[in-house]
């Protein structure tokens, strides 16, 4: 099939180009809601499984785009991901091995950047901003770190189930990437810089990078015992001032009883004030 390379920003806002594969019908994967394509889709799981199986975790700069692959290689990788039917779908692609790995990695990032509404849902961005702001309050304070962890975990619980499932899967895979950092030269910061525009569209780059880095660095405490079920309630929590906030819209709460948050998908019911 012919390929078309279009110059401009990708869905995540930082791609120098976006690659579109000309074919009949709309994509069954890119730009498709997670509830329709899977969380994660089998094609994405197969692509990352191939990267791991073929030694791609040792490739210098994998996922951080320090050594970007050729646009033709990315176009071919995108088409292979679209029609993947097992890890073997990636094994026969042309080009040097390291470039193939980087191309598949970039296509996975493209898929993330094109998820409608962003993986870290736009309606929770204000709440994430409140939790991230705690990082600047007594940075060395272990107690404040625990508060930030708990607040971030509570906001994550309000993501749609499919978004949370994909986030856990992707961040978990990045732990494997970091385990090979002696070879691939990645760091939590470099991965956060690469993935933050894919996970949080239309957000300040510095804020998004700090949040994604925090999630990467705290994968175990954030995701252990975290139920991958649709949130049945919204949480309230303490901000740096000690005041209670709604984690959906960051609105400071003074009277929580029977409060309905205008930005929430689920209202508070008989919530009690945080002490």
Written account of the structure:
The chain is mostly helical. The model is unreliable at 1-24 and 230-275 (pLDDT under 50). The protein is 46% helix and 6% strand. The strands form two sheets. A two-stranded antiparallel sheet has the order 1-2. It has a two-stranded antiparallel ribbon with strand order 3-4. Strand 3 (236-238) and strand 4 (244-246) form a beta hairpin. Helix 3 (71-82) crosses helix 5 (97-113) and helix 5 crosses helix 10. The protein has helices spanning 34-37, 42-53, 71-82, 88-91, 97-113, 125-133, 142-156, 161-179, 181-184, 188-199, 205-217, 219-223; strands at residues 3-7, 17-21, 236-238, 244-246.
**Mind describing the biggest β-sheet?**
2 strands, antiparallel
On the 0-100 scale, what is the average pLDDT? 75
Rounded Rg: 20 Å
Task: Identify the strand order in the major beta sheet.
Answer: 1-2
Number of strands: 4
Strand content: 5-15%
> Which outline best applies?
globular
- Count of helical segments? 12
Low-confidence stretches: 1-24, 230-275
Helix content: 40-55%
Structural class: mainly alpha
User: Which sequence of SSEs, written as H and E, runs from N to C?
Assistant: EEHHHHHHHHHHHHEE
First and last CA, distance: 62 Å
């Amino acid at each position: 099939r012919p390929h078309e390379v279009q110059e401009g920003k990708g869905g995540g806002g930082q791609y120098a180009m976006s690659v579109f594969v000309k074919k009949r019908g709309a994509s069954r994967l890119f730009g498709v809601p997670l509830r329709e394509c899977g969380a994660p889709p089998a094609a994405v799981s197969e692509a990352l499984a191939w990267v791991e199986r073929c030694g791609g975790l040792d490739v210098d700069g994998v996922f951080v785009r320090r050594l970007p692959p050729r646009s033709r290689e990315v176009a071919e990788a995108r088409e292979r991901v679209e029609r993947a039917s097992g890890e073997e779908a990636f094994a026969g692609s042309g080009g040097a091995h390291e470039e193939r790995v980087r191309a598949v990695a970039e296509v996975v990032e493209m898929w993330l950047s094109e998820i409608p509404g962003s993986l870290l849902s736009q309606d929770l961005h204000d709440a994430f901003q409140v939790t991230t702001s705690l990082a600047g309050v007594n940075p060395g304070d272990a107690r404040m770190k625990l508060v930030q962890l708990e607040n971030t975990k509570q906001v994550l619980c309000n993501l749609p189930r499919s978004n949370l499932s994909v986030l856990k899967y992707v961040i978990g895979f990045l732990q494997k990437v970091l385990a090979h950092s002696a070879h691939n030269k990645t760091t939590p910061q470099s991965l956060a810089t690469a993935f933050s525009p894919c996970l949080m569209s239309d957000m300040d780059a510095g804020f998004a990078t700090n949040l994604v880095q925090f999630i990467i660095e705290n994968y175990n405490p954030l995701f252990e015992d975290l139920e991958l079920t649709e949130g049945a309630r919204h949480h309230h929590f303490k901000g740096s001032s000690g005041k209670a906030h709604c984690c959906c819209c960051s609105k400071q709460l003074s009277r929580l009883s029977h409060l309905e948050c205008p930005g929430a998908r689920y209202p508070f019911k008989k919530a009690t004030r945080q002490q």
